[in-house]
Design brief:
Helix content: 40-55%
Structural class: alpha/beta
Largest sheet: 7 strands, mixed
CATH architecture of the largest domain: 3-Layer(aba) Sandwich
Distance between the termini: 64 Å
Oligomer: single chain
Length: 345
């Protein structure tokens, strides 16, 4: 017998056994590790785990084929903090000085005059029409490429007023775990937001692991053209194509995704129709709302459950009652989450 050949066969056997041991250890670890470690035990966490098990177990009567596993998430107030105002609005306010510098005649015109004053009381009193004017002036008239550059530059420097941290650090750890848990079980996760689609697409992949093509948001028009060197460009125009809020969310889901979600997550009245649309489908469906009831670790507002009222992320009591009546799960930030942000000690 050839000793060299015997040694080679022995080496192959040892390698195969070692590989089996490693794979077995990984499988055991995956089976024994608990999902959603930043969630407290309770009805909210149980609802998620039971839903995932029911829809991914091939022997289950509620099994969902992988191609149909769609989960949609609102962003502001659901995936990251939305107070004291939406991050995109803060970005738009930061752009007003540049707009006024380019068009000095706007300096004495409302609402630009109020924004330039920096008066917080006056800013808080801005109407929806005022905000529409500000958004149109700061989000349009530039190329999509330049817009992406501008948003990235702002994100690199801007700090939240409460924690003095970049906005992309204000994502909720339990929701990040939920995104990963769903993806690990074959779900494709989408952001469906009332915020600007182009704005959220800039950072969604790096921040949430969600690529830009899986972001559905409020969409404005663009015009195709050429720059001074003849390079094709798209210029953002003040023309609204889709207001992806309230009823606009299921409309956007149909338009951009083409499948009814099996799970949907929100936090405010603006998400009601998306959750209704999700729950109206056949089979196991999961609808969940985040209730911000933790003033110590984040913010507390509703006005459901006697919490303070708010202009951003309104969650009234009748909406809370509607959710419970229709089998939606309300997530208590205070009671269901062990931690809120990654930077917590």
């Amino acid at each position: 017998m050839n000793p060299g050949g015997r040694n080679q066969k022995l080496a192959v056997v040892v390698f195969c056994l070692a590989t089996l041991v490693v794979l077995s250890a990984r499988t055991t670890l995956a089976q024994t590790s608990e999902p959603l470690p930043s969630w407290n035990s309770g009805s909210a966490r149980n609802a998620i785990v039971e839903f995932v098990h029911a829809t991914t177990d091939a022997s289950s009567s509620q099994f969902v084929p992988p191609a149909e596993r769609i989960a949609t998430f609102d962003q502001d107030g659901t995936l990251w903090t939305e107070h004291p105002m939406y991050a995109q609005l803060v970005y738009c306010l930061s752009r007003v000085p540049a707009v006024v510098a380019a068009k000095p005649e706007l300096k004495g015109v409302e609402p630009f005059k109020t924004v330039m004053s920096g008066d917080p009381t006056a800013l808080a009193a801005l109407s929806m029409k005022d905000w529409e004017t500000i958004l149109a002036a700061t989000l349009t008239g530039i190329t999509t490429d330049q817009f992406k550059i501008d948003v990235n530059a702002w994100l690199a420097d801007a700090k939240d007023p409460k924690w003095k941290r970049p906005y992309t650090e204000l994502t909720f750890v339990p929701m990040q775990e939920l995104l990963r848990y769903l993806r690990d079980n074959g779900y494709k996760t989408y952001i469906v937001t009332g915020g600007g689609q182009d704005f959220v697409r800039v950072y969604a992949e790096k921040t949430y692991g969600i690529p830009p093509e899986q972001v559905v948001g409020t969409v404005g028009g663009t015009t195709y053209g050429y720059d001074e060197n003849g390079k094709p460009i798209l210029t953002k125009e003040p023309k609204l194509l889709l207001n992806d809020d309230h009823a606009g969310k299921p409309e956007g889901i149909h338009m951009m995704i083409g499948r009814r979600p099996y799970a949907a997550f929100g936090n405010s009245l603006g998400d009601k129709q998306m959750l209704e649309y999700t729950k109206a489908g056949e089979g196991a469906r999961l609808a969940m709302l985040v209730l911000h009831d933790d003033a110590a670790r984040e913010y507390a507002y509703g006005p459901a459950k006697g919490l303070p009222d708010t202009k951003f992320g309104t969650f009234p009591q009748d909406y809370y009652d509607f959710a419970i009546k229709n089998g939606w799960v309300v997530i208590s930030m205070k009671n269901d989450w062990k931690r809120v942000f990654a930077f917590e000690k």
